[in-house]
Amino acid sequence: MSISLERLRRCSIAVDLGASRTRVYLKRTGVIVDEPTVAAVNTRTGGLIAVGTLAERMTGRTPAHIRVVRPVSGGTVIDIAMAQRMLRLLVGNKLRRAWRRRPLMSAAVCVPHDADPLAQRAAMETLTGVGARRVELVDTLIAAAVGCGLPVERPEATMIAVCGAATTQVAVLSLGSIVAAERVPVGGDTVEHVLVQHLRNEHALILPSQAVRPLHQALSGEGAVGHDTEVHGRDVATGLARSVRVDVESLRTALRTPLTGLLDSIGTVLRRCPPDLVADLADRGIMLAGGSALLPGLDSMLREATGMPLNIADRPGVCAVEGLGAMLDGKVQPMMLEAIVS
Ligand SMILES: Nc1ncnc2c1ncn2[C@@H]1O[C@H](COP(=O)(O)OP(=O)(O)OP(=O)(O)O)[C@@H](O)[C@H]1O
Protein backbone atom coordinates (compact mmCIF):
# COMPACT_ATOMS: atom_id res chain seq x y z
CA MET A 1 0.00 0.00 0.00
CA SER A 2 1.64 3.27 -1.05
CA ILE A 3 1.00 6.60 0.64
CA SER A 4 1.19 9.99 -1.03
CA LEU A 5 1.58 12.61 1.69
CA GLU A 6 0.71 15.23 -0.88
CA ARG A 7 -2.69 13.60 -1.46
CA LEU A 8 -3.16 13.05 2.28
CA ARG A 9 -2.71 16.76 2.90
CA ARG A 10 -5.71 17.40 0.69
CA CYS A 11 -7.93 15.20 2.90
CA SER A 12 -10.27 16.85 5.41
CA ILE A 13 -10.91 13.93 7.75
CA ALA A 14 -9.04 10.88 9.00
CA VAL A 15 -11.00 7.81 10.05
CA ASP A 16 -10.02 4.69 12.01
CA LEU A 17 -12.87 2.20 11.80
CA GLY A 18 -11.88 -0.40 14.38
CA ALA A 19 -13.64 -3.57 15.49
CA SER A 20 -14.10 -2.00 18.90
CA ARG A 21 -13.99 1.78 18.42
CA THR A 22 -14.44 4.33 15.67
CA ARG A 23 -12.26 7.43 15.70
CA VAL A 24 -12.55 10.45 13.46
CA TYR A 25 -10.02 13.27 13.23
CA LEU A 26 -11.06 16.54 11.65
CA LYS A 27 -8.25 18.41 9.95
CA ARG A 28 -6.76 21.23 12.05
CA THR A 29 -9.25 20.37 14.84
CA GLY A 30 -8.31 17.02 16.37
CA VAL A 31 -10.22 13.88 17.32
CA ILE A 32 -13.94 14.69 17.12
CA VAL A 33 -15.29 11.13 17.51
CA ASP A 34 -14.01 8.30 19.74
CA GLU A 35 -16.95 5.95 20.27
CA PRO A 36 -17.66 2.21 20.22
CA THR A 37 -18.27 0.80 16.72
CA VAL A 38 -21.76 -0.32 17.70
CA ALA A 39 -25.28 0.35 16.42
CA ALA A 40 -28.65 -0.65 17.90
CA VAL A 41 -31.32 -1.37 15.30
CA ASN A 42 -35.07 -1.86 15.55
CA THR A 43 -35.56 -5.06 13.54
CA ARG A 44 -39.30 -4.32 13.03
CA THR A 45 -38.83 -0.92 11.38
CA GLY A 46 -35.15 -1.13 10.35
CA GLY A 47 -34.61 2.19 12.14
CA LEU A 48 -31.41 3.03 13.94
CA ILE A 49 -32.09 3.48 17.67
CA ALA A 50 -28.64 4.39 18.95
CA VAL A 51 -24.97 4.33 17.99
CA GLY A 52 -21.68 4.45 19.87
CA THR A 53 -21.61 4.47 23.68
CA LEU A 54 -25.38 4.44 24.03
CA ALA A 55 -25.72 1.42 21.73
CA GLU A 56 -22.90 -0.41 23.53
CA ARG A 57 -24.69 0.08 26.88
CA MET A 58 -27.69 -1.72 25.39
CA THR A 59 -25.64 -4.88 24.68
CA GLY A 60 -27.28 -7.88 26.36
CA ARG A 61 -30.16 -5.75 27.67
CA THR A 62 -32.42 -5.42 24.64
CA PRO A 63 -35.90 -6.80 23.96
CA ALA A 64 -36.27 -9.21 21.03
CA HIS A 65 -36.98 -6.54 18.40
CA ILE A 66 -33.81 -4.54 19.11
CA ARG A 67 -30.51 -5.91 17.85
CA VAL A 68 -27.10 -4.54 18.77
CA VAL A 69 -24.70 -4.96 15.85
CA ARG A 70 -21.01 -4.34 15.17
CA PRO A 71 -20.47 -3.44 11.50
CA VAL A 72 -16.68 -3.90 11.67
CA SER A 73 -14.98 -7.19 12.46
CA GLY A 74 -11.25 -7.88 12.61
CA GLY A 75 -10.45 -4.50 11.07
CA THR A 76 -12.74 -5.11 8.08
CA VAL A 77 -16.09 -3.43 7.43
CA ILE A 78 -18.49 -6.38 7.16
CA ASP A 79 -21.73 -4.38 6.93
CA ILE A 80 -21.07 -1.35 4.74
CA ALA A 81 -24.60 0.10 4.88
CA MET A 82 -24.70 -0.12 8.68
CA ALA A 83 -21.19 1.34 9.01
CA GLN A 84 -22.28 4.29 6.87
CA ARG A 85 -25.42 4.90 8.94
CA MET A 86 -23.44 4.65 12.17
CA LEU A 87 -20.72 6.99 10.89
CA ARG A 88 -23.26 9.56 9.73
CA LEU A 89 -24.87 9.65 13.17
CA LEU A 90 -21.62 9.56 15.13
CA VAL A 91 -20.09 12.44 13.28
CA GLY A 92 -23.40 14.27 13.26
CA ASN A 93 -23.47 18.02 12.99
CA LYS A 94 -19.73 18.56 13.26
CA LEU A 95 -18.96 16.79 10.03
CA ARG A 96 -22.07 17.98 8.25
CA ARG A 97 -20.97 21.57 8.78
CA ALA A 98 -17.53 20.74 7.40
CA TRP A 99 -19.19 18.84 4.57
CA ARG A 100 -21.22 21.92 3.64
CA ARG A 101 -18.09 24.05 3.54
CA ARG A 102 -16.21 21.56 1.37
CA PRO A 103 -18.75 19.28 -0.28
CA LEU A 104 -16.16 17.41 -2.32
CA MET A 105 -14.27 16.26 0.74
CA SER A 106 -11.48 13.71 0.64
CA ALA A 107 -11.00 11.29 3.50
CA ALA A 108 -8.09 9.18 4.75
CA VAL A 109 -8.80 5.80 6.34
CA CYS A 110 -6.57 3.39 8.28
CA VAL A 111 -6.66 -0.20 7.07
CA PRO A 112 -4.83 -3.20 8.55
CA HIS A 113 -1.39 -3.93 7.12
CA ASP A 114 -2.39 -7.00 5.11
CA ALA A 115 -5.93 -5.88 4.23
CA ASP A 116 -7.04 -7.75 1.10
CA PRO A 117 -8.60 -5.89 -1.88
CA LEU A 118 -12.11 -6.67 -0.63
CA ALA A 119 -11.40 -5.16 2.79
CA GLN A 120 -9.80 -2.11 1.14
CA ARG A 121 -12.82 -1.70 -1.10
CA ALA A 122 -15.23 -2.00 1.83
CA ALA A 123 -13.40 0.80 3.67
CA MET A 124 -13.49 2.99 0.56
CA GLU A 125 -17.19 2.33 -0.10
CA THR A 126 -18.07 3.15 3.51
CA LEU A 127 -16.50 6.59 3.20
CA THR A 128 -17.74 7.35 -0.32
CA GLY A 129 -21.22 6.39 0.92
CA VAL A 130 -21.09 9.15 3.52
CA GLY A 131 -20.01 11.75 0.99
CA ALA A 132 -16.25 11.51 0.51
CA ARG A 133 -15.29 12.16 -3.09
CA ARG A 134 -11.89 10.52 -2.76
CA VAL A 135 -10.60 8.08 -0.17
CA GLU A 136 -6.93 7.49 0.67
CA LEU A 137 -6.01 4.24 2.40
CA VAL A 138 -3.16 4.26 4.89
CA ASP A 139 -1.54 1.32 6.62
CA THR A 140 -2.56 1.38 10.32
CA LEU A 141 1.00 0.46 11.31
CA ILE A 142 2.52 3.55 9.67
CA ALA A 143 -0.24 5.82 10.99
CA ALA A 144 0.17 4.44 14.53
CA ALA A 145 3.98 4.70 14.39
CA VAL A 146 3.70 8.37 13.37
CA GLY A 147 1.03 8.90 16.05
CA CYS A 148 3.34 7.43 18.73
CA GLY A 149 6.10 9.82 17.66
CA LEU A 150 8.45 7.04 16.50
CA PRO A 151 11.28 8.30 14.25
CA VAL A 152 10.09 6.15 11.34
CA GLU A 153 11.96 8.23 8.73
CA ARG A 154 15.43 7.38 10.08
CA PRO A 155 17.59 4.55 8.70
CA GLU A 156 17.20 2.76 12.04
CA ALA A 157 14.73 0.15 13.15
CA THR A 158 11.66 0.98 15.20
CA MET A 159 9.23 -1.73 16.30
CA ILE A 160 5.56 -1.26 16.99
CA ALA A 161 2.78 -3.59 18.12
CA VAL A 162 -0.74 -2.23 17.55
CA CYS A 163 -2.88 -4.26 19.95
CA GLY A 164 -6.51 -3.83 18.94
CA ALA A 165 -9.71 -5.58 19.92
CA ALA A 166 -9.75 -8.33 17.32
CA THR A 167 -6.18 -8.40 16.07
CA THR A 168 -2.64 -7.34 16.90
CA GLN A 169 -0.34 -6.04 14.19
CA VAL A 170 3.41 -6.12 14.74
CA ALA A 171 5.98 -4.43 12.49
CA VAL A 172 9.54 -3.26 12.18
CA LEU A 173 9.88 0.03 10.30
CA SER A 174 12.88 1.80 8.85
CA LEU A 175 13.22 4.70 6.38
CA GLY A 176 9.49 5.34 6.42
CA SER A 177 8.60 1.83 5.27
CA ILE A 178 7.58 -1.45 6.78
CA VAL A 179 10.46 -3.94 6.71
CA ALA A 180 8.50 -6.88 8.13
CA ALA A 181 5.02 -7.18 9.59
CA GLU A 182 2.63 -9.76 10.95
CA ARG A 183 -1.02 -9.72 12.02
CA VAL A 184 -2.38 -12.22 14.56
CA PRO A 185 -6.00 -12.74 15.64
CA VAL A 186 -5.24 -11.89 19.27
CA GLY A 187 -6.55 -8.76 20.96
CA GLY A 188 -8.73 -7.45 23.74
CA ASP A 189 -11.67 -9.55 22.52
CA THR A 190 -9.57 -12.74 22.80
CA VAL A 191 -8.67 -11.87 26.38
CA GLU A 192 -12.33 -11.21 27.17
CA HIS A 193 -13.32 -14.56 25.60
CA VAL A 194 -10.68 -16.45 27.61
CA LEU A 195 -11.83 -14.85 30.89
CA VAL A 196 -15.49 -15.66 30.15
CA GLN A 197 -14.64 -19.29 29.24
CA HIS A 198 -12.43 -19.71 32.31
CA LEU A 199 -15.23 -18.61 34.67
CA ARG A 200 -17.72 -20.82 32.88
CA ASN A 201 -15.52 -23.92 32.95
CA GLU A 202 -13.89 -23.52 36.36
CA HIS A 203 -16.66 -21.82 38.35
CA ALA A 204 -19.87 -22.67 36.38
CA LEU A 205 -20.51 -18.94 36.17
CA ILE A 206 -21.79 -16.97 33.16
CA LEU A 207 -20.12 -13.59 33.19
CA PRO A 208 -22.09 -10.57 31.90
CA SER A 209 -20.12 -8.56 29.32
CA GLN A 210 -20.02 -5.49 31.59
CA ALA A 211 -18.23 -7.49 34.29
CA VAL A 212 -15.09 -8.11 32.24
CA ARG A 213 -13.46 -4.67 32.70
CA PRO A 214 -13.50 -4.93 36.53
CA LEU A 215 -11.63 -8.21 36.10
CA HIS A 216 -8.95 -6.32 34.13
CA GLN A 217 -8.61 -4.02 37.10
CA ALA A 218 -8.22 -7.00 39.41
CA LEU A 219 -5.55 -8.39 37.09
CA SER A 220 -3.67 -5.11 37.22
CA GLY A 221 -3.76 -5.25 41.05
CA GLU A 222 -0.60 -5.49 43.05
CA GLY A 223 0.26 -8.67 41.20
CA ALA A 224 0.66 -10.48 44.47
CA VAL A 225 0.39 -14.23 44.14
CA GLY A 226 -2.62 -15.61 45.94
CA HIS A 227 -4.91 -12.58 45.97
CA ASP A 228 -8.44 -13.14 44.80
CA THR A 229 -11.39 -11.08 43.62
CA GLU A 230 -15.17 -11.35 43.82
CA VAL A 231 -17.03 -11.87 40.53
CA HIS A 232 -20.80 -11.62 40.07
CA GLY A 233 -22.60 -13.57 37.36
CA ARG A 234 -25.25 -16.18 36.65
CA ASP A 235 -25.06 -19.83 37.65
CA VAL A 236 -24.78 -22.09 34.59
CA ALA A 237 -27.14 -24.74 36.02
CA THR A 238 -29.72 -22.80 38.03
CA GLY A 239 -29.72 -19.54 36.09
CA LEU A 240 -29.70 -17.64 39.40
CA ALA A 241 -27.42 -14.75 40.30
CA ARG A 242 -24.30 -15.95 42.12
CA SER A 243 -20.97 -14.55 43.29
CA VAL A 244 -17.68 -16.44 43.41
CA ARG A 245 -14.19 -15.60 44.63
CA VAL A 246 -11.68 -16.15 41.85
CA ASP A 247 -7.94 -16.56 42.26
CA VAL A 248 -6.36 -13.80 40.15
CA GLU A 249 -3.28 -15.93 39.49
CA SER A 250 -5.43 -18.60 37.79
CA LEU A 251 -6.84 -15.89 35.48
CA ARG A 252 -3.31 -14.81 34.60
CA THR A 253 -2.40 -18.43 33.82
CA ALA A 254 -5.46 -18.78 31.54
CA LEU A 255 -4.39 -15.68 29.62
CA ARG A 256 -0.90 -16.98 28.96
CA THR A 257 -1.98 -19.19 26.02
CA PRO A 258 -3.54 -16.49 23.78
CA LEU A 259 -0.77 -14.06 24.62
CA THR A 260 1.77 -16.62 23.37
CA GLY A 261 0.40 -15.99 19.86
CA LEU A 262 1.37 -12.36 20.22
CA LEU A 263 4.82 -13.32 21.39
CA ASP A 264 5.24 -15.67 18.41
CA SER A 265 4.37 -12.86 15.98
CA ILE A 266 7.10 -10.66 17.50
CA GLY A 267 9.59 -13.50 17.00
CA THR A 268 8.45 -14.03 13.39
CA VAL A 269 8.83 -10.33 12.53
CA LEU A 270 12.30 -10.18 14.12
CA ARG A 271 13.42 -13.28 12.23
CA ARG A 272 12.41 -11.65 8.93
CA CYS A 273 14.52 -8.53 9.64
CA PRO A 274 18.18 -8.02 8.72
CA PRO A 275 20.45 -8.44 11.78
CA ASP A 276 21.50 -4.75 11.75
CA LEU A 277 17.93 -3.66 12.33
CA VAL A 278 17.38 -6.23 15.07
CA ALA A 279 20.50 -4.89 16.81
CA ASP A 280 18.95 -1.36 16.78
CA LEU A 281 15.92 -2.72 18.58
CA ALA A 282 17.87 -4.16 21.49
CA ASP A 283 18.16 -0.62 22.92
CA ARG A 284 15.06 1.00 21.50
CA GLY A 285 12.65 -1.85 22.19
CA ILE A 286 9.01 -2.17 21.23
CA MET A 287 6.32 0.50 21.31
CA LEU A 288 2.87 -0.80 22.29
CA ALA A 289 -0.12 1.02 20.78
CA GLY A 290 -3.85 0.25 20.42
CA GLY A 291 -6.38 0.05 23.25
CA SER A 292 -5.27 -3.43 24.35
CA ALA A 293 -1.78 -2.07 25.08
CA LEU A 294 -3.39 -1.10 28.40
CA LEU A 295 -4.15 -4.74 29.24
CA PRO A 296 -2.74 -5.23 32.72
CA GLY A 297 0.58 -7.03 32.70
CA LEU A 298 0.91 -7.22 28.89
CA ASP A 299 3.97 -4.98 28.85
CA SER A 300 5.74 -6.80 31.66
CA MET A 301 4.94 -10.19 30.11
CA LEU A 302 6.41 -9.12 26.75
CA ARG A 303 9.40 -7.45 28.45
CA GLU A 304 10.14 -10.65 30.33
CA ALA A 305 9.70 -12.92 27.31
CA THR A 306 11.64 -10.84 24.76
CA GLY A 307 14.23 -9.25 27.03
CA MET A 308 13.60 -6.00 25.14
CA PRO A 309 12.51 -2.63 26.55
CA LEU A 310 8.75 -2.02 26.25
CA ASN A 311 7.04 1.36 26.07
CA ILE A 312 3.32 2.07 26.00
CA ALA A 313 2.22 5.00 23.84
CA ASP A 314 0.82 8.01 25.74
CA ARG A 315 -2.65 7.62 24.24
CA PRO A 316 -2.46 4.11 22.78
CA GLY A 317 -6.06 3.91 21.52
CA VAL A 318 -5.96 7.04 19.37
CA CYS A 319 -2.37 6.74 18.07
CA ALA A 320 -3.38 5.61 14.59
CA VAL A 321 -5.99 8.29 13.95
CA GLU A 322 -3.76 10.98 15.46
CA GLY A 323 -0.85 9.85 13.28
CA LEU A 324 -3.10 10.04 10.25
CA GLY A 325 -4.32 13.44 11.45
CA ALA A 326 -0.71 14.66 11.74
CA MET A 327 -0.18 13.71 8.08
CA LEU A 328 -3.35 15.61 7.09
CA ASP A 329 -2.25 18.66 9.09
CA GLY A 330 1.21 18.60 7.47
CA LYS A 331 2.86 18.13 10.88
CA VAL A 332 5.05 15.32 9.57
CA GLN A 333 8.71 16.38 9.13
CA PRO A 334 9.75 17.21 5.53
CA MET A 335 12.46 14.53 5.69
CA MET A 336 9.89 12.04 6.84
CA LEU A 337 7.68 13.25 4.04
CA GLU A 338 10.22 12.20 1.43
CA ALA A 339 10.72 8.88 3.13
CA ILE A 340 7.05 7.96 3.20
CA VAL A 341 5.95 9.30 -0.18
CA SER A 342 6.21 6.49 -2.66
N1 LIG B 1 -7.81 0.22 30.07
C1 LIG B 1 -7.92 -0.89 29.38
N2 LIG B 1 -7.58 -2.07 29.91
C2 LIG B 1 -7.69 -3.21 29.21
N3 LIG B 1 -8.12 -3.28 27.93
C3 LIG B 1 -8.49 -2.13 27.36
C4 LIG B 1 -8.40 -0.88 28.03
N4 LIG B 1 -8.84 0.08 27.18
C5 LIG B 1 -9.17 -0.54 26.03
N5 LIG B 1 -8.97 -1.87 26.15
C6 LIG B 1 -9.23 -2.89 25.14
O1 LIG B 1 -8.75 -2.41 23.90
C7 LIG B 1 -9.55 -2.93 22.84
C8 LIG B 1 -9.87 -1.78 21.90
O2 LIG B 1 -8.68 -1.30 21.37
P1 LIG B 1 -8.73 -0.41 20.07
O3 LIG B 1 -9.65 0.71 20.28
O4 LIG B 1 -7.32 -0.10 19.68
O5 LIG B 1 -9.36 -1.46 19.07
P2 LIG B 1 -9.87 -1.28 17.58
O6 LIG B 1 -8.93 -0.38 16.85
O7 LIG B 1 -11.30 -0.88 17.59
O8 LIG B 1 -9.76 -2.79 17.13
P3 LIG B 1 -9.04 -3.47 15.86
O9 LIG B 1 -7.69 -2.79 15.75
O10 LIG B 1 -8.95 -4.91 16.24
O11 LIG B 1 -9.95 -3.20 14.73
C9 LIG B 1 -10.79 -3.53 23.46
O12 LIG B 1 -10.73 -4.93 23.35
C10 LIG B 1 -10.73 -3.09 24.92
O13 LIG B 1 -11.22 -4.08 25.78
From TrEMBL:
The portions of this protein that span the membrane are: none
Annotated compartments: Cytoplasm
- Parts forming coiled coils: none
Please state the protein's primary subcellular location: cytoplasm
Q: Which Pfam families match?
A: MreB_Mbl (PF06723)
**UniProt entry keywords in alphabetical sequence:** ATP-binding, Cell shape, Cytoplasm, Nucleotide-binding
Q: Which residues bind ATP?
A: A165, A166, T167, G291, S292, A293, L294
Q: How does it assemble?
A: Forms polymers.
Q: Which family does it belong to?
A: Belongs to the FtsA/MreB family.
What's this protein's function?
Forms membrane-associated dynamic filaments that are essential for cell shape determination. Acts by regulating cell wall synthesis and cell elongation, and thus cell shape. A feedback loop between cell geometry and MreB localization may maintain elongated cell shape by targeting cell wall growth to regions of negative cell wall curvature.
| Protein name, UniProt field | Cell shape-determining protein MreB
Q: Which organism is it from?
A: Streptomyces coffeae
Record lineage: Bacteria, Bacillati, Actinomycetota, Actinomycetes, Kitasatosporales
Task: Give the gene symbol.
Answer: mreB
